[in-house]
Amino acid sequence: MPFQFRVLRVQGIYYLTSGLWPLFHMASFEAITGPKVEDWLVRMVGLLAAVIGMTLLVAVRRRNRGIEILVLAIGSALAFAAVDIRYALGGVISPLYLADAVVELGLVVLLVGTARSGR
Predict the structure, then answer these.
(1) CA 15/CA 19 separation, integer angstroms
(2) What is the residue-wise DSSP string for 73-84?
(3) Distance (Å, rounded) from C-alpha 36 to C-alpha 31?
(4) What is the reported pTM?
(5) Stretch 14-22: mean pLDDT, rounded?
(6) Please, which residues have CB within 8 angstroms of residue 37's CB and are 6 or more apart in sequence?
(7) Residues 97, 86: Cα–Cα separation, whole Å
(8) Torsion, Cα of 23, 24, 26, 32 (10° steps)
């Protein structure tokens, strides 16, 4: 399996599980990430993350190397990282989100590298 698909699989699983977590157990999600004001918004973002994750996993299963999958994967990782950094450094959300930003930016580096090398 090409390395790019392995990265996409990891990202897909990460998004699917982290997206579904607040839907199934908001209390444990808030215990780790901090209290939330708008539970509905957390659930909405979680559902969107889960859908992105499922889409990436389907692409891996179908061996889809289309540019649209890379745009989705890289774009969503950059979007999550930007929000994590902006609001964690601003004191609005837990500094724990900076760890997520590191994961997201790591995914971007790996995906851009595999896109350039064709791996």
Answers:
(1) 6
(2) HHHHHHHHHHHH
(3) 10
(4) 0.93
(5) 98
(6) none
(7) 10
(8) -110
